[in-house]
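Duplicate of earlier report; SRPBCC family protein input re-posted below.
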Amino acid sequence: MTTSLPRQDRIRRALELLRNETTDKFDEVIDFAPTEFTDPVLAQDERDHIFGTVPSIVAHSSELAKPNDFMTVQMPRNNLIVTRQKDGSIKAFVNLCRHRGAMLEEREKGRCRIFSCPYHRWSYDPDGSLRTITRDTTFGEVDRAEHGLIEVPVQERHGFVWVVDNANATIDVEAWLGPEMDAILAEYRLEDAVCYQAGGFDEPTNWKLMQDAFLDGYHIQYAHPNTAGKVIHTNVMALEDFGRHCRFIAPRKSIDRFLEEDPGDAALDKYVTETHFLLPNSTLLRQPDHFQLLTFRPHPSDPAQSRMEQRLIVPKVEDSGMDEAHWERLWSKNWDILLAVLHNEDFPLLRGSQRGMASADAGDMMLGRNEIANQVFRRETRRLVADGRAAAAAK
Ligand code: FES
Ligand SMILES: [Fe+2]
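Output:
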């Protein structure tokens, strides 16, 4: 199903699927077990073999715009501080004082010249080096160079900040994305856009149940009859499967004007939403005039909890052709609508799903041939876990 068709042709293919009342499909219906969302052993393997092994997005670059800007991120394996350095690069550290392990930074984000420990007031520079040991004449000899903050691999690419949640790992986002997805993200120039707002939600739901719901073109008119269901066609997806990552085009209802007539050379961009799945845990939605990034992270210990983050990524005011007040009104309204759909429609459904999956006699579940991005997500996360287990066993 991998293609390299230009966008206009991919949209025409989606239109053809719509005309034929069908969608791209995989060959098989696949089974999965409810324990995939409750098993603590699998959850540990996912933390180690997925998040401790491959890059995932933690922020848009504009959220750390200036030197000394920082944010804290609860990753599945480590609590991190991510900071912009003086030279413009980014570093990520385990958010923990090297003296006796107090949490160094409690705030979600901010700007600061030093990280100062609340327990005995040791301090660290933004590059992680240990700067001050209080009362050091009594503390004793310490090799400061050996006791800076512990670094975790981080890289900025295509306007996003990516982390491998493992101090012993390396990071290569370009290689991870592969040639197709790397070229796609490069073309979007998201580094020139700005994150209008980011919000995080801690939910009592396994991260994969959450991720699944935001790759799902099959539920729209049923779970969102009065919101997204009015705007986007249900169960019509033109897929490109790149192996790890994938993307699919779903036609908006506004495209219906071309059901009977040929669109000819008419620009079709505004009649579709394009969804990108970035393995392991992100959905990037390309809307006609903005992008939306959704990320899903496992809880550090409980398989039945996760954190979702939503980012609205939009053209900067100066590139938008709008005055600031208009720009602000437009995106704040947009943000509110997105939040309402999440909280009123998706989250309650998914909480119920997690409760149900914990039933002793839940039985097996399945993914249909039409649930194409969910099939890619299953296939690839299973592969990462299996590869990690095999590598661990070979040691
Ligand atoms: S734990 Fe941080 S200074 Fe003691
Ligand atoms: Fe939904």
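Residues 324-357 form the longest helix (34 residues).

Merging into the original ticket.
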